[in-house]
Amino acid sequence: MSHSVTVTRMTTTSTSTAIIVNTGFLKTASGLLKLFETIIAAICLFLAFYFQFDRTLSYKISVYEFFICVMACALITSGCLLLACIFSLSTSTILTKTLFELIYHSVLFALCLAASITLFIETKDTRYGNSDKMMTAAVLGLILSILYLVSTVFAFRTYRGL
């Protein structure tokens, strides 16, 4: 019975004291996903803060606050992971094989999906001046949740070694 074995080796040598930037991480699917997750979360948070709900209208303000909390968590965590993977040569290879990536992406997928759907429904039912901007934030949140779903699939495959 014969089988094939693939061995992948990565040797990194560093002798300088300067900060080393792992630009190769941004060329991978995981790196691009993290970059776009961070950018879209920042845009959603900007839209939610800049074009606030009109607090004089009667609607559930908790929907708006839930969306802001979820997008802030997504931006902070994705941004920190992106920076850690860019500025550390070993983080991008070690972190992707841990259970943290799988749990993190699946939880943020569920939270972004819930926050975006509730904001979408509330914005669609409410008539106020910034409804088109909030609708844009809700749609971008849905796109962000799709990116987190794709990241969850990649994290699962990497964790299982598929």
From TrEMBL:
Q: Listed GO cellular component terms?
A: membrane
Membrane topology for this entry? Multi-pass membrane protein
Q: Where in the cell is it found?
A: Membrane
Record PROSITE patterns: MARVEL (PS51225)
Is Membrane there in the keyword field? yes
Q: Which InterPro entries match?
A: Marvel
Q: Which UniProt keywords apply?
A: Membrane, Transmembrane, Transmembrane helix
Any idea what this protein is called?
A: MARVEL domain-containing protein
Q: Which organism is it from?
A: Nesidiocoris tenuis
Biological classification of the source: Eukaryota, Metazoa, Ecdysozoa, Arthropoda, Hexapoda
